[in-house]
C-alpha cells in the first residue's frame, strides 16, 4: 500500500507542480513540509518557485504516513522498495502503465 501511495504522490506532484522527474526525485526530507510554493533547482542550477497545489501536498502527506522509512533531512523524500532514492525508471514505468490504463497517447507525460 505504501508503494501505491508513493507512486500516486510522485505523479500528482510532478503533474500538479510542473516538475521534471529529476526535480521531483531530487527532493529530500528537509524539503518537507511543502508550503504554498516550492523552490526547485532545475536544469543548469537555476532556481525557480513553483506553486504547491493542496492535492499534491495531501498526496505526499498520505505517502509519508504509510512509508516504512523515517523522514530524515538528508535522505530522499521518495524512496524505492529498499529505501534508496526512487529511480526515474520506476516513475517512467508507473506513468506508462497509467497512460495505458487511461487510454492516453505515449506523448502524455507528467
UniProtKB/TrEMBL annotation:
The keyword ATP-binding does not apply. PROSITE patterns: TYR_RECOMBINASE. The keyword Secreted does not apply. GO terms for molecular function: DNA binding. It holds the Pfam family Phage_integrase. Residues 1-110 form the Tyr recombinase domain. GO terms for biological process: DNA integration; DNA recombination. SUPFAM superfamilies: DNA breaking-rejoining enzymes (SSF56349). It comes from the Bacteria. Keywords: DNA recombination. This is Tyrosine-type recombinase/integrase.
Amino acid at each position: 500500500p505504501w508503494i501505491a501511495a508513493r507512486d500516486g504522490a510522485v505523479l500528482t506532484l510532478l503533474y500538479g507542480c510542473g516538475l521534471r522527474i529529476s526535480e521531483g526525485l531530487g527532493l529530500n526530507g528537509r524539503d518537507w513540509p511543502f508550503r504554498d510554493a516550492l523552490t526547485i533547482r532545475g536544469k543548469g542550477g537555476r532556481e525557480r518557485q513553483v506553486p504547491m497545489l493542496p492535492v499534491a501536498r495531501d498526496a505526499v502527506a498520505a505517502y509519508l504516513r504509510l512509508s516504512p522509512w523515517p523522514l530524515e533531512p538528508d535522505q530522499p523524500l521518495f524512496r524505492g522498495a529498499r529505501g534508496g532514492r526512487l529511480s526515474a525508471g520506476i516513475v517512467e514505468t508507473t506513468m506508462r502503465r497509467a497512460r495505458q490504463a487511461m487510454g492516453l497517447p505515449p506523448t502524455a507525460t507528467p
